[in-house]
Amino acid sequence: MAHMPAPLLRTLIVSARYSSSGASHSAIRAVLCSRRALSTQSSSNEKLQSKKADEGAFRGVEGLHYGDIPAVSSARDGGPIADDWVMFHPVYTKEELKAVQTSAHREALTMSDKFANFLIRVLRFGFDLVSGYSHKEIPPGSTMTLEELRKKGYVNTESRWLHRILFLETVAGIPGMAAATIRHLHSLRIMRRDAGWIHTLLEEAENERMHLMTFMTIKKPGILFRAAVLATQGVFYNIFFLSYLINPRICHRFVGYLEEEAVKTYTICISDIESGHFPEWENMPAPEIAKDYWRLAPNATVLDMIYAVRSDEATHRFVNHSLANLKKNDVNPFAIREPDMTVKGVKYGFEREESADYVRDSQKMIQKRD
Ligand SMILES: [Fe+2]
Ligand SMILES: [Fe+2]
To answer: Which residues pair with 196 in a beta bridge?
Structure first.
């Protein structure tokens, strides 16, 4: 264990945490067994000999193909494919879900902070305008009906919520992937290790994509919406990619501020559901994909799911603001572990010195486990 690479250690920690997922472990065993069978079962030595590129060979010579092995994922209740088919699964306790606060805000101290914050304000204003999203304080003692509240822009309709959430999640999945790509290419180019950033960034990208997949079970967008996503993706990915090449810190700060807005948006959504202003989602059961991804209870509702999504957004807020405080060759403090939501939910991020302390503590923990 002394020289165990961090990602492997993390995999072990995560595997231990989800050891109850017996089905997936037996599936992994099944893959390993079939892998062994493919490489040793052949009775003919001829099959072990390598072939020229243009000569035929039996299936599996270049490694396993999905068609060579039995399906390893199980379908639950005839629903979507379940079990360990994504990267890191975030799972939260009840206390963590409730711990998230919207007040965790990074003061814009430097010019680049101010620029990133300004960009987010402008984008938010523009998107609110275009999507028709509106949230105003309901006057105290109001006797307006839900229909009146929605008409006057105090609360949003289900379709406005879905448009907003679905569109934003298609955008939110871009920065992590673009940043991971750049760091990956950089590592290949200079032939040096990456300081542990790539996996955290990929996890964020996948986590955002899972948000999109989850809400897609409630509404399937139409052709106009999809065209807008296509155009936005083409523009935003390229701008973010180029900006990250020039100044990664400002990009992480920008994402940190974007995630502050995401936490606020989901908090308003939660409060609308809990105050009876969003009756459509009050008792709606959570989709299977969400129960599987966040390990929710079998009777979980969409409200439980949104609490989990909000916690993810608080993680992105914390991680990106922390990374924005680091130099690009600093070790990623979250490569091995992350603080729980009682920290990530209430604090905007780690200062550089705090990250260094956290890395030191993580190393001590690893040494203790050896
Ligand atoms: Fe998200
Ligand atoms: Fe996010």
So the answer is: none
